[in-house]
Amino acid sequence: MFNLIFRWQEEVAKQAIKHALKALKKRHLVEEGAHAPAYIALSRPIISQGSEWKGKAEKLEVELQQCYKAQSRLSEQLVVEVAESRTLKAFLQEKETAMAELEKELTQTRDEYSQLKTDFEEKVRALELLLSEYKELKAQLEQLTIRATNAEAENKRLANALYEDMTERLKASGLEKLAQEQVDGIVRRSEEGAEFFAESTVPSVCKDRINAHDGGCASIMFDTGSLGHSLFGCLGSVLDLAITHDNRSIIAGSSSNNLFVWDVNLGHVHHTLTGHTEKVCAVDVSKVSSRHVVSSAYGRTIKVWDLQKGYCTNTIIFHSNCNALCFSTDGLTICSGHVDGNLRLWDIQTGKLLSEVSAHSLAITSLSLSLRSFISPDDNNIAAGSAHGSIYIWSISKADMVSTLKEHTAPILCCTWSAIGKPLAYADKNGVVCTWT
């Protein structure tokens, strides 16, 4: 029963559905008929404008292709311009770096210019100062030249007066010839016509006082009594002098560490002996040969020189400075006096020490043979100077002091006795030379 009812309901439903579908179809047909005129009206313009739109589309496509081509060219140009821009940027950076370096160099150049300008101004001021000093020194030199000329004339006048006085005394005493000068204990010819000497007397009166030099005088000798030459060319102070036995050359030891050799006849330096590193304090010439010279310096060195060759032939180095030295009479050995108070004898050829004597407790400053502390021509007396300006005379036979002469205020540097027995002459550190009779 139930199944019959279900089937009936199912059939009724199907019929209702069919009826609804028919109604919808009919309604659709009615609506389609109502819209047909509109569809027809709309379709007519589209068909008529299709060809026009197609032409426009083709034209737009052509323009689009041209735009693509233009875009491609612009892209290529953009790539080139980007590459050029990068190149220009690198170039610009390089130029900026170069400009920075140039600015740095310009700053350095300006600094250097400023420094050079400062240095130049300092040099100009220094030059002006030197010119001022030069003018002042030139004026002083002119004054000194005038003083030297006057002093030279005065010295010549005094020397000539001394020589004339000595000549008159010798003529009055009946002496026919003058004494020979002392060389290594031997009396040699000092002035023309001399053959023997008068007995020396102990001097007591200062006869002449000569302002001979602007600086100290470290060595003096008697000659004819007249000024023969003024020798120039020595650099530094003259600390010792020696004359070759042929009287052709004068050798000076100087504070400039050199020895200067003058030709007496020509009046100029013809040798400069270099090799010492300190002041040359003593010099002597061989009495056998005029070519050999010996010198000592504060650098604890003794040197032997050959004047003909013009150079040092032997160097002796010792631990104690040598203050004084001289050749032996045979010219084969050298006697030296040292700061330690010892006397030493050296072989001139080998430079070996032959003998040593502990002579004094203090430094030796002069030696006997050709003495600064001088022996009188008759070998009776010895004269020596002191640091406080006095001259002391000892009797050799009495071994005692017999006189003290006081005229100087400066230390005495050297003294010598005339070969005829008088006068006695000595010089001090201020360049003053005095003669005593």
UniProtKB/TrEMBL annotation:
Coiled coil (residue ranges): 57-161
Keyword Coiled coil on entry: yes
Keywords: Coiled coil, Repeat, WD repeat
Domain Autophagy-related protein: 55-161
Coiled coil recorded as keyword: yes
GO biological process: autophagosome assembly
Species name: Gossypium darwinii (Darwin's cotton)
WD repeats: 273-315, 324-356, 376-404
Listed Pfam families: ATG16, WD40
Protein name per the record: Autophagy-related protein 16 domain-containing protein
